[in-house]
């Protein structure tokens, strides 16, 4: 591996020292809340909700309360470490500090694989949304189109990327708010029920509440937590707060807004159309709107959802491309992945990410009906395994800064262990569902491959040292 460039190391060290001193903070607490909300809301919710409802029935509302609390605990743990020990590699660096280089390597590559699976699930969701108008066109055709568009945007450079993502974050939030207002208008009689095909929809549509039993709710949790997958971005961004003591305020606001939007929009979707008519092949919100005889309403909403999901897909591609660069800079990936062109785009890293995406598109060609559920399950498991690593690292690293801390996670150590227990409960629920078991198997295989990769890297490094001596 090529040694780190001394100038780059100096810049990183300077930035880290500034973060530790609380300088360069440009975010208010409400800015941080918006970043968290925008990062979390994506196709994992717009389409993945259909999987959750199909698996759990109306009881999925409890599942989203569970998911909100779990993700909040992870955010607080990551924020605590980030504020007191800001690191360029974020949770990957904390895992390395807590448990050694193996766990740093595993955490980074698990995040890259999870990001790749998330990106693939977003592209699959985009293709499913587009099939709303072109039902006979195969998923892989749309997948290729959206992939090329996403790669093209990344190749333009990152100068306006943050501004574009902020704009799409507002679109995502506005979309759900508009749906909630529409649903409330229907329930309050402001929009005639006669316009709906299901004009008799009432509280009976969510009774019995535990239609698929407790086991159905348990099995749905992996899909639910996947909907909160972007929460780590908010934890990392906490270093940019002007006032570090505002972390709790930002986290509370993020949790309340997400839970209010998620729970109310799902509840209203099940009030506008019977939950049994909701399936994984269409957004439940579009399904609900399709039941109303209002011209183009469902198509307009579908276009907005596609825009929101596309932004999440591009964000995932941008993220995993730069994660690979970070891995290479720390010696956990070949040094060639650090190279950037004149626009600052890491072409080698982007090429590998695109190759992984192409492989998953090929899978969707052979498994067009099950691929989204497989991807969501696998991505969800890989993602929340990193959540376990975040919470475990916080428990281990806390002794280094506990006595001089200005911000500490409340309820420690109970809340940290509670978060781990909730994640283990979620993963174990995946064993109850056939398609989820396949996704779990894929995740286990990925973790095994990453572990083997560390062994190869270690042997190579040892061989290099022996050769030099």
UniProtKB/TrEMBL annotation:
Pfam families linked to this entry: AA_permease (PF00324)
GO terms for cellular component: plasma membrane
Segments of skewed composition (Basic residues): 1-21
Membrane topology value: Multi-pass membrane protein
Any one GO biological process: transmembrane transport
InterPro entries: AA-permease/SLC12A_dom
Keyword Transferase tagged: no
Domain (Amino acid permease/ SLC12A) ranges: 33-454
Keyword annotations of the record: Amino-acid transport, Membrane, Transmembrane, Transmembrane helix, Transport
Chief place of localization: membrane
Subcellular location: Cell membrane
Annotated transmembrane regions: 27-47, 59-78, 99-119, 139-158, 170-191, 211-238, 250-270, 300-325, 345-368, 374-395, 407-432, 438-460
Region annotation (Disordered) ranges: 1-22
Keyword Ribosomal protein: no
Identification of the protein by name: Amino acid permease
Protein source organism: Falsibacillus albus
